[in-house]
Design brief:
Helix content: 25-40%
Distance between the termini: 57 Å
Number of strands: 25
Radius of gyration: 22 Å
C-alpha cells in the first residue's frame, strides 16, 4: 500500500489498525453497532481509522471535513455518532497506541451496519444510507474478477471517503493486494495537468474517476490499462479520446442505496455508451409509474434488486417505504433514473425523472438548495438548475424573484453566497444567481 507519506505494507496497516481498534475499545468504550464519524481526507490516516472502526464491530460514518459545521453537526446527531475522528484525534490515537496488535474479536453479523453515507435530500437536509456488512461483502465477492485488478497494479485513490465511489477505489484494490496511491492531500484536489503529472509520476495503472475529471486531462499515460468511469453520464467523445489498444474503459452505474455499483459495461468507440448489464447477483427491472415491467424497447424507471440493496435510510421509515419496494417477493430500490434496454440487451441511461442532478459525480437534490433560498426573507420564488458551460463543465445556477421590499441592498448576492457556503457543501453552492421578473 502506497501513501504520499511513504510506503506501507499490508501487514503494517493491519497491525496499526488493530492497535487503534484496541484503544478505541479500551479508552473510548466503542462497542459493536456503535457509530463513529470519520472526518479525514484520502490517505493512510483515513484507511487506518476506517479499518479500526470496522474491527471494533462498529459502523463508520464518513464526513468530508470541508463540509459546513452545521451540516456536520446535523449528520452527527442524525447518525447518533459516539465518537468523531478528525486529524487531531487520529494523531492522538496513533501517538498513544497500545502494544497489543492483535485484532479485537467481534462476532459481526451480516445484517450489522458497516457504514452510513449521507446524500442530498429534497427536504433541505441530507439523508443517511445504511449499508450492511452483507451488502458490501457481496459487492466484493463480485467485482474484483470483473475489474481485473491484480497485485502488480497501482490504483489511484482521489475521492473523499464521504463519496461512496471511493469504496470502489479502495476495497477491490485491497482484495487484490494491489498498491493504493492516494492523492497528496496537502496540495488540494488534483485535476488537469496536476493530476496527469501525478498519475504519470506514480506509474498508476488503474484509475477510477468521474467523467468530468477525466475530461480535464490531456496527454498519454502508457501504464494506465484500466479506466473506470462512474458517478455521472459518460460522453461518447471521452471514450474515443481515451481508448487505446490494450486499455479497458469500464462504465459503472449504481446509487449509494445499492452498494456502490449495480451494473457495468466495457466501453468502445465503436458502440454507443450504455450502463451495461447488472452485476452478478444483482437484478435490474425497468418499471412504469404503476410498478409494472415496461414493454420491450420502452423507457422505464431503473429499479435494482439483489443482496446489494441497502437496509434503508437512517431514521426515515417514510422515505424508506417509498423508495424500497417489494417486487415478486424481492426488495428493489427505485433509483429515479430512466433507462431503456437496447437491442444488445444493455441499458441506455436516459436521465432523471425528478429534480436530482449530478455535479462531479455527487448526487444533488435541487430541492435542498431551493429550500434554503426560499428561507431568505427577500426571495419570493427560487429555482435551481444545472448549466453546462462552453468548456463542458456543469455548474449550478439559481434563478430568483425578489420580494418587493426596499431594504434589499446591492450586496445581497455576496451575502447570500456566503450564507450558502456555511450551509451547503462547496459542490452544492450555485455559482451564479440570476434575478428574474417572474
Amino acid at each position: 500500500m502506497v501513501t504520499h507519506a511513504g510506503d506501507w505494507t499490508y501487514t503494517e496497516v493491519d497491525e496499526e489498525a488493530n492497535r487503534i481498534a484496541q484503544r478505541l475499545i479500551s479508552t473510548f468504550q466503542i462497542r459493536q453497532r456503535d457509530r463513529v464519524a470519520i472526518l479525514l481526507p484520502p490517505g493512510i490516516d483515513a484507511y487506518l481509522a476506517i479499518l479500526a472502526v470496522l474491527k471494533c464491530g462498529a459502523a463508520y460514518v464518513p464526513i468530508d471535513p470541508s463540509f459546513p459545521a452545521d451540516r456536520i453537526e446535523m449528520i452527527r446527531l442524525d447518525a447518533e455518532v459516539r465518537l468523531m475522528i478528525g486529524e487531531p484525534e487520529i494523531a492522538n490515537l496513533r501517538h498513544e497506541l497500545q502494544r497489543d496488535s492483535e485484532r479485537p474479536f467481534r462476532d459481526v453479523d451480516s445484517a450489522d451496519l458497516a457504514y452510513i453515507i449521507y446524500t442530498s435530500g429534497t427536504t433541505g437536509r441530507p439523508k443517511g444510507v445504511g449499508i450492511s456488512h452483507g451488502n458490501i461483502s457481496n459487492f466484493l465477492e463480485v467485482v474484483p474478477a470483473l475489474y481485473g485488478v491484480g497485485p502488480q497494479d497501482r490504483v489511484y485513490q482521489g475521492m473523499t471517503p464521504s463519496f461512496d465511489f471511493s469504496l470502489e477505489e479502495v476495497w477491490p484494490t485491497w482484495i487484490a493486494g494491489a498498491a493504493l496511491v492516494p492523492f497528496p492531500s496537502a496540495g488540494g484536489r488534483l485535476m488537469g495537468d496536476d493530476l496527469f503529472l501525478f498519475l504519470r509520476r506514480q506509474r498508476v495503472s488503474v484509475l477510477y474517476c468521474v467523467p468530468t475529471l477525466l475530461a480535464t486531462m490531456q496527454g498519454e499515460l502508457p501504464e494506465l490499462h484500466t479506466i473506470n468511469v462512474g458517478g455521472e453520464a459518460c460522453p461518447q467523445d471521452l471514450v474515443e479520446r481515451w481508448s487505446r489498444p490494450g486499455r479497458r474503459i469500464l462504465n459503472t452505474y449504481g446509487p449509494t442505496e445499492t452498494t456502490i455499483t449495480a451494473s457495468w459495461a466495457v466501453l468502445s468507440p465503436e458502440r454507443p455508451v450504455t450502463i451495461g448489464k447488472a452485476l452478478p447477483t444483482y437484478d435490474i427491472q425497468l418499471l412504469t409509474e404503476e410498478l409494472t415491467v415496461v414493454a420491450d424497447g420502452e423507457a422505464g424507471e431503473i429499479c435494482i434488486g439483489g443482496p446489494g440493496v441497502a437496509q434503508g435510510y437512517i431514521n426515515r421509515p417514510d422515505l424508506t417505504a417509498e423508495k424500497f419496494i417489494k417486487l415478486g417477493g424481492q426488495r428493489y430500490y427505485r433509483t429515479g433514473d430512466l433507462g431503456r434496454v437496447t437491442d444488445n440487451g444493455e441499458i441506455a441511461f436516459l436521465g432523471r425523472i425528478d429534480t436530482q442532478v449530478k455535479i462531479r459525480g455527487y448526487r444533488i437534490e435541487l430541492g435542498e438548495i431551493e429550500s434554503l433560498l426560499f428561507a431568505k426573507p427577500y426571495i419570493e420564488q427560487a429555482l435551481v438548475n444545472p448549466f453546462v458551460r462552453q468548456d463542458g463543465v456543469t455548474i449550478l445556477v439559481a434563478y430568483v424573484v425578489l420580494r418587493a421590499v426596499d431594504w434589499v441592498e446591492n450586496g445581497w448576492r455576496e451575502e447570500l453566497h456566503a450564507e450558502l457556503k456555511l450551509q451547503l457543501p462547496e459542490y452544492m453552492v450555485p455559482r451564479h444567481v440570476e434575478v428574474l421578473k417572474e
